[in-house]
Please model this.
Amino acid sequence: MNATGLARGPKHFLDLDAFDGATLRHLIDDARRMKQARAGRPKGAPDDETPLTGRMLAMIFEKPSTRTRISFEMGMRQLGGQTMFLDGRDMQFGHGETVGDTARVLSRYVDAIMLRTKRHQSLVELAKTASVPVINGLTDKTHPCQLMADILTFEEHRGPIKGRVVTWSGAGNNVCASWIHAAVKFGFELRVAAPPELEPDAQVLGWAKAQGGKVNVVRDPYDAASGSDAIVTDTWVQMSESDQLGEGGARSRHNLLMRYQVNDKLLDAAGRNAIFMHCLPAHRGEEVTDSVLDGPQSVVFDEAENRLHTQKSVLLWALK
Ligand code: CP
Ligand code: NVA
Model:
């Protein structure tokens, strides 16, 4: 069974809700093992085993990226494979031809496709037609690769995440949706502190409820933070929203979310043992203060590093 629920066909990595918990656990453990195995080695050196030799990953980006692009590039190289960077604006993706036709063509050239898109539907269409694995490198709805890195990071710092409490404080956005999927699949409690205007996707919340997940939306970030093992936030405006919102929209978003800012006071409410997490890029002084981001409880650069290790386990799962 692949992660799109089909008995046959390529192994797509689209969203965490399509996976069983055991597969996701295996991917995290595999990433940890690979990370430990290459500790201290030059970053460009290949792994001891290079099972993706001769394999090519095409990466289509409709939005900017630092971490996702570079961690996939380095991950493929360490595993013996290669990558091809494709700027969505320079190709016919989603405008000169159908997404399905692009999927058919790329499937003749490359072994796997990673897509970062403004429209989740493009990811779905790509996966429906491609005959090679498709990996979600962020859409306007979700960011599952980020969550794989975040689970590994949490567990490196605080041990097994099952049964623990995580608070999200801010807009209920794409990264938040993947945190909700992860809460159900890895068995932890997620408190989402968000204003009513920016609650997480109702469908994702409904899915979590139907699965018996412990996911609650609250208004007061201080109530949520108390007793939490981690506080997480993300930018107030998504990359795909900035054009539509304009300056006025961004200002009103700012006003709505200011009380959800992760600052020293909010982190104090969680306590000294709570870690601070953020997928980056961060807008310092908006969703998080410098003192928290650069403080002793912050694990944000471990999260960034772990994108590399968890993406390698995703690539191996999809391509082997
Ligand atoms: N966290 C993340 O996906 O970062 P980039 O946008 O830099 O890829
Ligand atoms: N929520 C952010 C995450 C960036 C990695 C965005 O979509 O812009």
